[in-house]
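Standup notes, structure subgroup. Blocker cleared on the adenosine-5'-triphosphate input:
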Amino acid sequence: MTTLDGKPASEVARADTATQVPAGEPDTCRQTPAQVADRLGVDPGVGLDTGQVFERAAVHGANRLSEPARRPEWLKFLDQFRNWLIAILLIAAVVAGAIGDIRDAVVITVVLQINAVLGYWQERRAERSLEALRRMLVPLARVRRDGTEQEVKAQSLVPGDVVLLEAGGRVPADGRLTVAETVEVDEAALTGESQPVAKSVTAVDHTATAPVPLAERTSMLFMNTALTRGRAEMIVTATGMRTEVGSIAEALRTGTEPPSPLQVQLDSLGRRLAVLSGVAVVAYALSAWVRGESLSDIALRAVALAVAAIPEGLPAVLALTLALGVHRMARRGAIVKRLASVESLGAATVVCSDKTGTLTLNEMTARTLWTEGRLYDVTGEGYGTTGALRVPGADDTSPPDDLRAAVLPFALCNDARLTSGYFIGDPTEAALVVLAAKAGVDADWMRTELPRVGELPFDGATKYMATFHTEPDGRTRVHVKGAVDVLLGMCTDVRTEDGARALDEGHRDEILAVTARFGSSGLRVLGAATALMDFGPSAFTPVELPGLTLVSIAGIADPPRPQARDAMALCRTAGVAVKMITGDHADTAAAIARELDIAGDVVTGAELDRMTEEQLAERVDDIGVFARVAPDHKVVIVRALANRGHIVAMTGDGVNDAAALKAAHIGVAMGITGTDVAKEAADVVLTDDDFSTIVRAVREGRAIYANIVKFVRFQLATNIGAILTLLGASLAGLPSPLTAAQLLWINIIMDGPPAMALAVDPARDDVMQHPPRDPRERILDARRLLAIGWAGAVMATGTVTLLAVARSYVDPDTALTMAFTTFVLYQLFNALSARGDDGPLLGRYQFRNRALWLCLGGVLAVQVAVVQLPWARTVFGTVPLTVTQWALCLGTASTVLLAESVLRAVRSALRNHRCHITAR
Ligand code: ATP
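Run returned:
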C-alpha cells in the first residue's frame, strides 16, 4: 500500500511518529484539502481501506486522551483505615494487647478488618457500576472507509480517516475540512471563545512564518469541539494525545462530581450525630466512672460505643445505593450521568417531552399528497417502495406525468438513503424518498443527474431545508422543503396543471385548510417548493432565496408509541404532569395529544412570544401542548415551570436543545436520535428514545430515594438504641449490657449486609400512586425523626428491662447474654419496620426482598453461633442460652415492630381526624 507521495503508508506513519509532529500540525490549515489528502494517502471520496486503518492504528494507537493514573487497589483498601474513629480503635487494640487483654485486642483487630473489607467492597461495587455506565456512553464517529459510510467507535480513528459530521456532532479528532456547508463550531472547550466560529474549506492565508494561532485555523476542526451548525467532512490529521486538546494537560483532568444535595444533607446529619454521640459517650463514660468501673474497661467500651453510635457507614451505603440504582436504570434504558439526578428524578413533578420519536415511534410513512387541484392517497407500508399514489374514488389509477415534478424537491432536498427497506438518515426524509419512489422518482438517480452544489441544512428554528442543483442547461435551481406555514411566507406562486400561477388569498386559504386537515388527523405536514435562481450558488443565505413556487404538500403518519398511553396514565396517578413540546404544527400536535390523553391547552411558539414571563407562569400549568416551538422556547418553558416550583424533566435531541437540557432539573437526551451536544448537556440519556423509559426512571428514582430513607432510618435507630441502652443501664445502676466486642459486632450488622439489602429493596407497588415528594423536604423530617427516636427508645427500654428482670431469675452472665442477644435481635425487626413510613407492617411486601431475608437469617445464625459455640463464647464473653431464653429475647425484640405499628396507627388516626375536621 502506498500513499500519493509514493511512500508506503506505514513509512509515512512511522515518519509521523519519529518526528513527533506537534499537536494539530499548525501548518495543515494553510494546505489545500488535496494537499492534506495527498500527504495522508487518502481519497476523501473513498476513505481509507481496512488494511490502512489497521496499519495506522498499530502505529498511532487508540484515538483516546490518556486518563489520570488510577489509584492502586491496595491503597484504596488502606483508605478504609483513614478515619479518626478507626485510628482510636487501633490504638485501643494496641493498648488492650499491651496490658494483656489479648482477647479484646484480637476482636477489635478482626472487626476492623471485616469493616474495612466491607467498606472496600461497597466502594468497589459502586465504582464498577459507574464504570460500566460510562462504557455505555462510548462516543461514535461517522466515517467513510472502503468507499462506504459507517459508524465506528471514535477511539478507532486514525490519521487519514474521513469523518462526516452534522450539527450537534462532537468532533472526534483533529482534522482538515474537505466539505463545509454553513459550518459553525463551538470551540469554547479549547479556546474559551463562547461564540461559535465559522469554518470553511478555504486554506488559511497566513503570511507570517510563525504557526497560525489556534483561533484562526478556520479550515481545521479540533477534537472535543462541537459543530453547532451545518454539515462537514474532514480528513483526520491528529488523534489522541497528539490533538490540540491532548496537548492541554488541564483538559485531561476529569472533574469529580460535586456531592448531591442528599449527600450534603447526610454529611451534615452525620456530623451533627457524631457530636451528639460524642456527648452521649462522654456522659456514659462519666456515669460508669462514678459507678467505679475500671478505667481501661470504660475507655475501651466508650470507643466501641462511639464506633457503634456514629453512622460512619452512611456515605458508603448511600454511594452504593445510588450506583446500583443507576445501574438498574441503565439496564432499563435510562443512563444517568450524574448521581444527583436520581434524587431529582424521584421528585419530578413535570415531564416535558418532545413528540417525534419520544411519544411517537418515529416510523414515518407518507399517507397523502396534495397538489393544486388534486389529492392523492399513498398506499404501501414502512420504508419499502411498493405502493402507489391514487386519487380516491377515481377509476384511472395511473398518476399524471407531472406528478414527478411535484415530488422532485422532496427527493433532491433530502439526505436520506434507502437500501431495500432500510434507510440511513432522518426518518421524515426517508419517508419522502419512499413517497418520491412511489410517484416514479428515483432519488439516487436524480441526485446524480442534478448534482447538489450547495445547501441550507434543516434547522429546528427555521423549519425548512434548501438545496441548490445545477440544471442540465447549467442554471441553478433551489429545492426547498419544510413546514407549510413557513414555506407559504417564501412562496409567490403555486404550481397548477397549467403551469405556475401567482398565489392569491384563495390559494393560501385552501393550502392552510389542507394543512389543518392533515394535521388534525395526526399527520406531520411538509411542503415542497422550488425556483430557478438568477445567481450562482456561491453566496446562499436564507434572505437571498428567490420567490418560490409551492409544488406539493405531503402528510406523513407517525403513530404514537403503544406504551406511551399507559405511561401517561401512570404519570397521572403519580401526580406528574406531562407536556408535549414539538416543532410540529399545532393541529398535528393536538391530534397526537388527544390520542395519548395529554390534557391541557395547545399553545404555539408565536403565542409564547407574545406572552410575558409572568403571563406564561400563570398559564403554564394549564397548557398540555406547546406546538411550533423553536428550541429557544424550551428554556422559557423550563423557567416558567421552575418559577411555579416544579421539578422539571425536559427532553431534547438537537444541538439547540442543549441550553434547555441544562436549564431543566433533569435534562433527558435521546440516545438514538440525539446529537452528541445534547447527550453531553443532559443528565440522563435514553438508550431507546422512549417516553415510557422516562416514566420508569422516575419510578426508579422514587424507589431509590425511599430505600435511602429506609437504611438511614435503620442505621440511626440502631445508633440511638445503642447509646440509650448503655446510658440507660448505667443510670439504672446495672452492669453494661454490651461489651466493646459486642458493640463492634453490632456495628458490622448495621453498616453491613442488612443495610445493603435495604438499599436494594424492590419498590413498593404504590410508589407511583402518590404525588411526588416535596423537593425541599429533608430526608429526616420531624415524622421520621420521631420514628427513629421512638424505635431507639423501645430497643433501649426492652434491653435494659430484660436485663434488670432476668438478673432476678438467672445468673448475671446469662442475663447479660440475653440482653446482648435481645439488642441484636432488635436489629432484625428494626430492619423490617424501617421499610416504609406508612401502611401495614406485615403483608406480602415484607416477603419481596429475598436478599434482606437472607441477611436477617444470616445475622440470626451468626448470633446463635456467637452465643452457643464455645470458641465464639470466649471471644464475645457470652454463655449459652436455653430455648425459652431465646424465645424470651425474640419476643422482647419484636416489640419494636409492635411499637412502629402503634405509631403508624396513631398517625393514621390523627390524619383521619384532621381530614374529618377539614371536611366539616
Ligand atoms: P419534536 O421532535 O420536538 O417533537 P418535531 O421533530 O416534530 O418536533 P421538528 O423536527 O423541529 O419538530 O420539525 C418541525 C417542522 O419542520 C415539521 O413540522 C416539518 O414541517 C418540518 N421539518 C421536519 N423535518 C424536516 C426536514 N428534514 N426538512 C425540512 N423540514 C422539516
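Discussed briefly. Confidence is low (pLDDT under 50) at residues 1-24, 250-255.
Next: hand off to the docking folks.
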